[in-house]
Amino acid sequence: MNDQKLIQSYTLAGLFTLSLRLVVGWTYFSAFWRRLILENKLDPEAAGYIGEKFNHFLPNALGIKPIIEYLVTNPNALWWSIAAFTIIEGIVGLFIMFGLLTRLMSIGVFSLAMGILLGSGWLGTTCLDEWQIGILGIASSFTLFLSGSGSFSLDHYFIQKQYGFTKTKWFSYLGSGVLNIQMNVLPKIVLSGSLLILGLTLYTNQFFHGGVWGDLHNKSVKPKIELADAKITKDILSFQVFRVEGVDVYGSFLIGIELIDVNKNSLLKLDGSDLANFPKENIRNKYVTKVKPGQHSLIIPLGAKATLLIKNELLLKLAGGKYTLKLTDISGSSWNTILNKQ
Are 203 and 236 in the same domain? Predict the structure, then answer.
């Protein structure tokens, strides 16, 4: 294939991916637009703070859980990371839509989509919302890297004007136009990249949702709370709660905490009214998303982890032995753990 036909082929490829470029670009630019222009979602004190969304990712993230946990336990680092992430989304989205440094921006799309996939690919109540966004972003970024931008782009405009930088080797890899890759090698790269993305698709679909074989599961439907470190020290019952599943925009509403002996007798019981007035000083939250009293219950958002302290003189009179701690959600779900009193 001569040079002129090769240039025409890449120009057409870039033209054919115009709708993909515009939609993908808006997908990422709109995140910047929503958080800073339509609303201020970077304010840690405001409702809808985006840092809490990161906290929602934590329980079932794939591979990047330690990074997320570090951020949600360090609010300043979290804010700077979110601010940088938002600015990058805005730049990448805008540049992709305008077709400026298209291939470099496609790498940005790939990185952002991979972060979404690994962090929140398990979320989605009615369908695999976040997983689909992440994996389609990765496939789109690979396609846009290969095609570059066509006629309706700044890259193409600069090439047509024959600016000096468009003739450099780096522009081929960062902008648009003919990729500086031999034609006998290019099909192998396309096939290898496509198969790797398919492999990632199948692996994450199975990991997050059991979508390839076995039983399907959706961790976003029902709330689930993990209990840990339950103990009685003098007149204080303490235990840790960690909400690991359920809808990210809807809390678990705890309406019952009960301490039960081996004979199934209820020794200590707090109902919804008691929990709605649970002392805030007796809630020791670990992350930016916080367990807190609500109007009729104790609210435990997705990803929240806290140690609860219940003080009652009755605990001083308990004999040593095993006891069951039971938590009840307004949905009817309940969670138990066994503790030993010395």
Answer: no
* Helix, strand, coil shares, percent, the chain, to 5: 50, 20, 30
Mean pLDDT of 295-320: 94
Residues 243-266 pLDDT 10s: 999 999 888 899 999 999 999 999
Say if residue 247 is exposed, middle or buried (CB neighbours under 10 Å; 0-12, 13-18, 19+).
Answer: middle
Which residues span the domain enclosing 44?
A: 3-209
Instruction: List the one residue out of 254, 231, 232, 229 whose CA is nearest residue 313.
Output: 232
If asked whether residues 173 and 266 sit together in one domain, one would say no
Tokens at residue 25, please? 């670009």
Asked if residue 265 belongs to a domain, the reply is yes
Opening angle at CA 128, ends 127 and 130, nearest 5: 130
HSE, side-chain direction, 13 A CA sphere, residue 52: 19
Domain boundary among 209, 238, 268: 209
Q: pLDDT per residue over 136-187, tens digit each?
A: 999 999 999 999 999 999 999 999 999 999 999 899 999 999 998 999 999 9
State mean pLDDT over 72-93: 96
Q: Say what angle helices 129-147 and 186-209 make with each other, to 10 degrees.
A: 170
Helix residue spans in the chain (DSSP H): 3-16, 18-32, 50-57, 65-72, 75-98, 102-120, 129-147, 154-160, 169-174, 186-209, 272-276
Q: How many domains does the chain have?
A: 2
Q: Helix axis angle, 18-32 relative to 75-98, nearest 10°? A: 150
Q: Residue 125 — pLDDT band, cuts 50, 70, 90?
A: confident
- How far is residue 335 CA from its own chain's centroid? 25
pTM greater than 0.85 (yes/no) = yes
